[in-house]
Design goal:
With 378 residues, the chain is α/β, with parallel strands linked by helices. The chain is built from 14 helices and 13 strands. α8 packs across α11. The protein is globular, with a radius of gyration of 20 Å. The structure holds S-adenosylmethionine. One of its GO terms (cellular component) is cytosol.
Length: 378
């Protein structure tokens, strides 16, 4: 058993992909502007004031080494234990540290020493700034494919986030499997990543710069659905998506007709088997989204408004941390058919980008603020 375990660890540690990625994020890149493509662009919708403020409080050196591709702020965070896969210099950890409060905790895991060093340097700075008596952030060195081997306990996290990292892993199924095992029942994996419009070619996969820039390892979005199902997660719920443009001719020539988006999905660890569709009403008690809670691209819950939801969402809401924030009809949980059909699912980020562009031109094509820019801390 011990031998089997060390063999598993060894093939993670010895992977050339890991060594190349470590080299890229440790030695080659020193700051956000060293990136060779604008592979990750932000949704250009304005950020809510409380998130802007939380980002402003993060130390500039941490922000200067931010390489994410989305905003990873799920709702209802007070007191939660959160794990950040590939936490880098720690920007998202320090932002979320403020939102979970002193009773919550954020663990960041990353394999690259240089990134961890920056993150760890500023623990005291941030705890003083937030006036916390003891740190609620810690950083672990390890592989996202081997979370339990890095010392993280099974069934111990309420939420896992990740920002532009899973694409860098050569074994995405293992990442999702490990994430599933360290999540508590009812827990959520909420993550932003880069997705492609089809399975990319071997030439693209083997290109070190494209891999390091988060394009070569991008999953075809449909493969995320398959992996999630194999691992046991609920069907990924698409939250938002924005187009990635690669303004680098050399890289673009290799990428050919493949298109890329940055997308945020939420996956839940809930019991198998769908519940029936039901009606719910949001009570407006979640901090920051008191009037209106955008759960995913299909469902926005306005306070006190009755909404018909599909069976899987009914199961998610009743088994997750959101259960107290909704009333269910009939009371107590998912119910029988009520005559109103729930909306058809939208999980294709390329389709969502088109819809968003139609609704509000420019909103899904990046713009004012590249999320990979240090300006996103201001
Ligand atoms: C694109 S950066 C994103 C960093 C951070 N999430 C952010 O938003 O700034 C990718 C990070 O993931 C880490 N990483 C990539 N693959 C990893 C793996 N298999 N295990 C652990 N860390 C990994 C890299 O070391 C790097 O710090």
């Amino acid at each position: 058993m011990a031998e089997e375990k060390s063999a598993r660890t060894k093939d993670v540690v010895d992977s050339t992909v890991h060594l190349d990625v470590k080299d890229y994020y440790g030695r080659v890149l020193k700051k956000t502007s060293d990136l060779k493509s604008n592979a990750c662009v932000a949704p250009s919708q304005p950020l809510p004031a409380f998130i802007r403020q939380a980002l402003k409080n993060v130390h500039p050196e941490v922000c200067a080494r931010y390489y994410g591709c989305g905003l990873v702020v799920p709702e209802c965070l007070e007191g939660c234990r959160i794990l950040d896969l590939g936490s880098g210099s720690g920007r998202d950890c320090y932002m979320l540290s403020q939102l979970v409060g002193e009773k919550g905790h954020i663990t960041g895991i990353d394999m690259t020493e240089d990134q961890l060093k920056v993150a760890r340097t500023y623990v005291d700075y941030h705890m003083q700034k937030f006036a916390y008596k003891k740190p609620n952030v810690s950083f672990v060195q390890g592989y996202i494919e081997a979370l339990t081997e890095a010392g993280l306990e099974k069934n111990s996290f309420d939420i896992i986030i990740s920002n532009c990292v899973v694409n860098l892993s050569p074994d995405k199924k293992r990442v999702l499997t490990e994430a599933y095992s360290v999540l508590k029942d009812g827990g959520e994996l909420y993550f932003s990543d880069v997705y492609s419009s089809g399975r990319v070619t071997e030439e693209i996969k083997n290109h070190k710069v494209l891999w390091g820039e988060c394009l070569g390892g991008a999953l075809w979005w449909k493969d995320l659905l398959l992996l999630a199902e194999e691992v046991g997660f609920s069907t990924p719920r698409l939250v938002t998506a924005s187009v990635i443009t690669v303004d680098n001719k050399e890289l673009q020539d290799i990428l050919g007709d493949f298109r890329f988006v940055s997308a945020t999905y939420r996956l839940f660890k809930i019991p198998k088997g769908n519940t029936k569709p039901c009606q719910v009403m949001y009570n407006g008690n979640i901090t920051g989204v008191e009037d209106s809670f955008l759960f995913d691209c299909q469902y926005t819950f306005k306070v006190d408004e009755v909404v018909e939801i599909d069976g899987e969402l009914a199961s998610i809401l009743t088994h997750s941390r959101f259960v107290e924030d909704f009333s269910f009809k009939p009371p107590g949980g998912p119910c029988g058919p009520s005559g109103v059909r729930p909306k058809a699912g939208c999980v294709d980020p390329f389709e969502l980008v088109l819809q968003l562009e139609k609704r509000s031109p420019g909103s899904a094509t990046g713009g004012c603020c590249s999320t990979r820019s240090a300006a996103c801390c201001q």
